[in-house]
Amino acid sequence: MNGGEEQTPILARLDRQLPYLYLLFALALTTLLCFLTAPFFGPDESAQSLRAISLSHGHLIEQMGPKEPGGDMDANVVLVMDGVDDIRMAWEPNASNFHDRPWGPMRAQPQQRLAAIRWAHRTMWEPFGNTAVYPPLLYLPSIAGWRIAESLSLTIFDSMRIARLLCALASVLLGWLALRLCACSRWILLPFLILPSTLFLNATASQDAILLSAAALAAALLTRPLVAHRDFTPPELALTAALLTLCAMSRPPYAALALVLFLPAIELPRHCWRRWLTPTAAFAAVTGLCALWWHLVSALPVDTSDAADPTVQIPFLRAHPFAGALAILRGTAEAALDFVHRGLYVIGWNDLLPHHGAAAVLAVALVLILLLAPSCPIRTRLGLGLLALAVVAPLLANSLAEYIIWTTPGWYTVYGIQPRYWLPVMPFAFLLLQGRLRLPPIPEPLRTRVLLAATAALVLVACTLPWMTALAFYTDTVAHVLRLNLP
């Protein structure tokens, strides 16, 4: 049985089965999504795929082109991606609101014109500035998929789906491992892993597929010393630090999550200076490797919006720190509301939304699970404070980064914060909120029934993903879309 708070017999039995139930459920759902999601309609999936293809040919650091970094890509890969992009861009002007667009941009006829195109095995230059700076390790499943498909000269669409399937398999296996290794209530980790947003990203040819499961596994490893009231073992510390390094290298604000490496030492009653040596070394390794990678790619320009100008924004922040701080706090608060509204269930390129009621159901279910699930023990105020800092600091740092690279200089709030930037912080936020939230005593049978009902609601909403995806991209049924996309 898991550690932490005592569980009722029915919860204890289900708790032991959760990793395997998740494995079956997530594998089935993500496999479906790999074929139902329109080609290259995952968030930045074209640029993410270009980076993976370039890495598969050994290009660790990309070349600088006339305006932005990129690389030599197979000509037909570029042709197909441009064709899909034309379909998508022709669709966007039909909406009055950028984040509330009409559905159904992909039709069978334009897709079929692209579906038969195979690898050309000749290259042309193609820029992908927004992903060229990303590190390689989170792309490993996608790299393998694209490399296998290129060697077999498959169609570009089938190549992309192989990359998606390998990303889905790797992310779900990491999620399964996180649930297996979680030492306290798995009921607080499962909701993150079965969120529609998480499952959708798991089934894309993107580093985000692996990033979310890596964060969940790091949170699961953190629970083990907390429940056992001990320090990390060397293997636990090394693996947790490695996972947090992957997160930090993909997006530097996540480096603040490495503060959780000190949490077990803080929670122990007797403090000894030697106890701090290994977490300090691990924290230094996370931040040092992150800094080293971004130093290696520092010659490549960071992707910015047309309205942004970092050379103006940074001096503005120095000259007006109070106004800049207010803008960042306002932008972070708006992003929190936006996350609840469209961060729990988003699909597609740049966040296509389902019905608003789905977000409300998910939010209520998550709150109930946080209040009722057996919690992981964090006893000290200092420990809760450190965990709060580890959760809040990446969010504020993300806002600062987007304020510099994506926001009009001197603006009163922050643009460019996408909900998926908050998802890797979510498992640690769950641990924090469970340490803070307390309910009056509730009869155990009622508590168990409500907890199971809230979890069932999450599962049912997640089960709408295949239907919602087919509707969003094709305005068609799941069966018809599968017939169109299966080889």
SSE arrangement:
Elements: H1 9-36, H2 45-56, E1 63-64, E2 69-74, H3 75-91, H4 108-115, E3 123-127, H5 140-151, H6 156-181, H7 190-193, H8 196-202, H9 207-228, H10 234-250, H11 263-267, H12 277-296, H13 310-319, H14 321-342, H15 356-372, H16 381-406, H17 426-436, H18 444-463, H19 465-474, H20 478-485
Antiparallel strand pairs: 1-2, 2-3
Describe the structure.
By secondary structure, the protein is mainly alpha-helical. It has one domain (9-485). It is built from 20 helices and three strands. A three-stranded antiparallel beta sheet has the order 1-2-3. Helix 9 runs antiparallel to helix 10. 48% of the residues are buried. The model has no long low-confidence stretch (mean pLDDT 90).
Keywords:
62% helix; 487 residues; mainly alpha
Give a short overview:
The chain has about 475 residues and is an all-alpha fold. Helices cover about 60% and strands about 5% of the residues. The protein has 20 helices and 3 strands.
